[in-house]
């Protein structure tokens, strides 16, 4: 007997058309529809299995499912256990938010509840194999060659979502770390904000459009933007939500801000349009601007793809890590919370110059061989560290013999002699006349050669710019100050800064500094992203808000540039100029346009997590119990030394509605904040300096602070706090900015090798 066809029902007219549409597609659903259609033609299970290349059991299963449940029986059912497919963006984000030892495919799969094979395939597709971060390959459509991609723009409105990436030559791979490559909390904030913003945009797109005049076309003028900051720009509804051109001006602005890199626009979402498709309009504008258009990978959603790209950026470029993530999250949140129709428009500041290797000691003279590379680990690094130890010891002492260096550093006499001989040959040390003694051989003291190295320091104050060229001893070789320009454009201020620096270098004369020039240190009011060199929100200099200062200055100067917060730079200058008298831990109280603190702890400058430690004004307000209506610590008039009245004219008002404060009143208030710092850190020295710490008021400040830090602390029976004047001049911050270059070059530190 022939095979009896398995049970199954012939599809009706409506069901037949649906099955035909499914069968014309791809995947498992097309296979199942083809089985039912062939069965309806009267074919046996064996014939169907042979024609479709499946087992007879598979044919029987889907015929029975269709007979019982109809079309619904051919759909995937919810299954327990591991999902059959996982969003690749989630896998990438999970890898990058894990420590290197927790990035194996099996461990990631266990966290996500999927197959480790799926994770391994994703890692291979994104080029994230191994525990280190190699050059990623973002599998967009059409494909991209592996390159260093930076997210530089995000647009989201009711019509579409577009992410713009900038491609550059491949950068070095970040060194492995025991910490996660990406801040998971910042990345989660972006994910939550993007989910809410996308939902709000889709709801806005589905809502009935209000009656309004025609919106601007795709060829209309652009919306103004600084190109240097992220922000949210309000938009207007037109006849249809998604036909309005808000994307074109956004793409124009991104290209203006990033004129050099290759740009790639990834269209994450585009609402259907009754007129010309929005994707076509975006593609035409991108073609005009030289931007390549891509679609996200099939195995990701727009949300997970964005999170994955931002995570890759944060992992490969630590200088833009948490700040960029939080900026994007803030912009998206404002879109959701906005009272009117709006659009997200985030544009990243110009990219920093490719990172160069940190400066090393001046090159050896011809014929001199560097540190050996024999047995043992990191012999070159060890030699560099010991050289810095010797330089630091000589710098603190002024002049010192080799025997005294060995005694202070615990290095062997042979090592000290070898290092000293090398440094003398390279011009960093100078050997003085032999010192005779009654016992032993004559000794020859050594000292630093002042002209062996120079650095330029620039201090940006809300009212004045100061630039100084400083030699290795801290002596000012050339200086110049001028009022800051009143031009409200950031570019004008940056141009003035660069012109001032060039003027000072020309004033000094190239023969005096060019051979040993180490770089430029720039001190600016905080907060500041010191790694990327971006000034963020200076309270009295809104013109520099979100300005990538280091990137812009690198276009004028082909040397190393360091951006530092002003009070931290002043502390570094104090440490460098003060030599042995400042070799201990101390707090530097900086009296400038505001009051800040620089902290030297455990022998090095303490910058904190984001290099913005020392925000003294808020601490002082909390100590005094001064808060505004929203509960935020006040911006205290006591922390603005430039507004004080002379000491002989006491304030006539009481409470918060004060007229000008006297120096005595302000010093009493500020000293309470210093008391909190001393109780918190338990240091024994407070140094006071800055442009408003002048001779006529210095004694008032010293008296009030010394009384507060010695009369009130909890541990006052155990210590006596010294309160001293700064050894630096009124140009302390500019000198300190230059000293940051010396400090980072010559101060001994144990660096982890990549």
From TrEMBL:
GO terms for molecular function: DNA-binding transcription factor activity. Signal peptide: none annotated. Residues 395-436 form the HTH marR-type domain. Residues 355-365 have a biased composition (Pro residues). InterPro entries: ATPase_NBD, Homeodomain-like_sf, HTH_MarR-typ, ROK, WH-like_DNA-bd_sf, WH_DNA-bd_sf. Residues 355-377 are annotated as: Disordered. It comes from the Bacteria. Gene3D superfamilies: 3.30.420.40, Winged helix-like DNA-binding domain superfamily/Winged helix DNA-binding domain. Belongs to the ROK (NagC/XylR) family. This is ROK family protein. It comes from Catenulispora acidiphila (strain DSM 44928 / JCM 14897 / NBRC 102108 / NRRL B-24433 / ID139908). The lineage of its organism: Bacteria, Bacillati, Actinomycetota, Actinomycetes, Catenulisporales.
């Amino acid at each position: 007997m022939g095979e009896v066809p398995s049970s199954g029902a012939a599809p009706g007219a409506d069901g037949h058309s649906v099955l035909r549409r499914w069968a014309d597609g791809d995947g498992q659903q097309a296979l199942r529809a083809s089985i039912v259609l062939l069965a309806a033609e009267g074919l046996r299970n064996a014939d169907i299995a042979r024609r479709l290349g499946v087992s007879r059991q598979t044919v029987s299963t889907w015929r029975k499912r269709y007979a019982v449940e109809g079309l619904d029986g051919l759909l995937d059912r919810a299954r327990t256990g591991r999902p059959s497919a996982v969003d690749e963006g989630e896998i990438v984000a999970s890898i990058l938010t894990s420590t290197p030892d927790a990035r194996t495919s099996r461990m990631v799969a266990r966290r996500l509840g999927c197959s480790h094979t799926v994770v391994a395939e994703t890692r291979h597709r994104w080029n994230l194999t191994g525990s280190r971060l190699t050059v990623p390959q973002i599998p967009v459509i059409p494909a991209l060659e592996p390159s260093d991609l930076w997210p530089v723009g995000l647009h989201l409105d009711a019509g579409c979502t577009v992410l713009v990436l900038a491609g550059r030559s491949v950068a070095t791979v970040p060194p492995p770390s025991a910490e996660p490559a990406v801040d998971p909390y910042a990345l989660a904030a972006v994910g939550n904000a993007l989910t809410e913003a996308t939902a709000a945009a889709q709801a806005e797109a589905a809502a009935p459009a209000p009656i309004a005049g025609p919106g601007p076309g795709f060829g209309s003028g652009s919306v103004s933007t600084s190109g240097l900051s992220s922000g949210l720009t309000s938009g207007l509804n037109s006849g249809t939500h998604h036909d309005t051109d808000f994307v074109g001006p956004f793409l124009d602005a991104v290209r203006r801000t990033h004129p050099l890199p290759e740009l790639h626009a990834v269209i994450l979402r585009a609402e259907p349009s009754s007129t010309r498709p929005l994707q076509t309009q975006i593609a035409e504008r991108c073609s005009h601007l030289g931007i390549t258009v891509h679609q996200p990978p099939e195995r990701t959603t727009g949300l997970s793809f964005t999170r994955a790209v931002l995570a890759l950026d944060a992992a490969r470029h630590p200088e833009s890590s948490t700040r960029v993530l939080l900026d994007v999250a803030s912009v998206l949140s404002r879109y959701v919370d906005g009272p009117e129709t709006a659009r997200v428009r985030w544009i990243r500041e110009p990219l920093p110059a490719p990172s160069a290797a940190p400066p090393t000691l001046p090159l050896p003279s011809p014929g001199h061989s560097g540190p050996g590379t024999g047995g043992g680990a990191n012999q070159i690094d060890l030699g560099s560290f010991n050289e810095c130890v010797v330089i630091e010891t000589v710098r603190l002492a002024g002049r010192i013999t080799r025997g005294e260096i060995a005694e202070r550093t615990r290095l062997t006499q042979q090592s000290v002699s070898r290092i000293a001989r090398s440094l003398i040959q390279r011009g960093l040390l100078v050997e003085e006349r032999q010192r005779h003694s009654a016992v032993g051989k004559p000794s020859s003291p050594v000292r630093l050669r002042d002209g062996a190295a120079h650095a330029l320091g620039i201090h940006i104050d809300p009212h004045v710019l100061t630039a100084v060229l400083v030699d290795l001893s801290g002596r000012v070789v050339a200086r110049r100050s001028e009022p800051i320009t009143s031009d409200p454009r950031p570019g004008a201020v940056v141009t003035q800064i660069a012109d001032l620096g060039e003027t000072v270098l020309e004033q000094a004369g190239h023969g005096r500094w060019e051979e040993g020039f180490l770089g430029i240190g720039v001190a600016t009011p905080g907060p500041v992203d010191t790694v990327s060199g971006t000034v963020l929100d200076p309270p009295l200099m809104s013109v520099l808000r979100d300005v990538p200062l280091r990137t812009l200055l690198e276009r004028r100067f082909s040397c190393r540039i360091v951006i530092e917060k002003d009070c931290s730079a002043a502390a570094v200058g104090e440490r460098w100029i003060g030599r042995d008298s400042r070799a201990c831990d101390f707090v530097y109280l900086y009296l400038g346009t505001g009051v800040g603190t620089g902290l030297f702890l455990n022998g090095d400058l303490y910058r904190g997590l984001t290099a913005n430690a020392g925000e003294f004004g808020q601490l002082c307000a909390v100590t005094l119990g001064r808060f505004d209506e929203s509960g935020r610590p006040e911006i205290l008039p006591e922390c603005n030394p430039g507004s004080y009245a002379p000491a002989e004219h006491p304030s006539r008002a009481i409470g918060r509605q004060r007229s000008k404060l006297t120096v005595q009143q302000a010093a009493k208030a500020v000293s309470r904040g210093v008391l909190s710092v001393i109780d918190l850190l338990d240091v024994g020295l407070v140094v006071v300096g800055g442009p408003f710490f002048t001779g006529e008021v210095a004694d008032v400040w010293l008296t009030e602070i010394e009384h507060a830090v010695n009369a009130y602390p909890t541990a006052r029976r155990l210590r006596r706090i010294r309160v001293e004047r700064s050894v630096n001049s009124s140009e302390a911050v500019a000198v300190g900015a230059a000293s940051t270059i010396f400090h980072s070059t010559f101060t001994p530190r144990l660096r982890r090798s990549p």
